[in-house]
Structure formats: structure tokens, C-alpha cells
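<given_protein>
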Amino acid sequence: MTDKPMLILIAGPHRSGTGSDPQAMAANLARLEAAAWPVFAAGHLPVIGEWVALPVLRSAGAGPTDPLADQVLYPTAERLLAHCDAVLRLPGDSTGADQDVATARRRGLPVYHDLAQIPPRTPQETT
């Protein structure tokens, strides 16, 4: 158990294996987002790199299959990891998620591979 809420990056496939199909990418994002509630329910704050990167891309007039995406998606996760306390690595082949795990390990952050591994937060009394 921990008394401080952790900021946990949820990492897994988004573009990988989709052939740039928007529906397949949306399905992958939905799988990442499905892990958000359990992380939150454990007392922590979930974050997914695409939640930040996709609006950045849209504001540049680009999308996830645009050449600019590689200059935004991976760097966004790298920058987020400077603020995260842990990574939840979901199953599936993903170069970006593998990079997230490597970055987290270099920074000494825990990497969880199952929601059950995430320590629940000790409830604190609010006054």
C-alpha cells in the first residue's frame, strides 16, 4: 500500500499492428482506456500518452498516421514519464510501449504487467 497517489502511464499498442486503420487504432485506444478505471479505483491517477499527443497532433493539423506523429507520440510519452511514478504495460506488440518500459526502468520506476500488481492507495482522511 502507498499513501500517495501515483501517476501511472498506461502503455500498450495504439498504432502497432493496425496498418494505420483508424478503427483498429480506436479499438486499441479503447483497450488502453479500459485500464484507466481500475487504476483510478486503486487510488491513483491514470494517464495515456495518446490523451496528450493526439490533441497536440490535431492542433498541428496532423493525425496519428501523419509523418509528424513520430515526432509527437514517442516524445510525449518520454516527457510524461518525467512526471510519472510507474508504468502499467498492457499486453501486445508495441515499439512505443516497449520504449516506455525501457525509459521507466532507466529511471527506476516500477513497471506493472497486471492491474493486480498495482499497490492500492491507503485512504487518507480529508479535512
Q: What stands out?
A: The radius of gyration is 15 Å. The mean pLDDT is 92. Residues 22-34 form the longest helix (13 residues). The helical segments are 22-34, 36-41, 49-59, 69-81, 95-106.
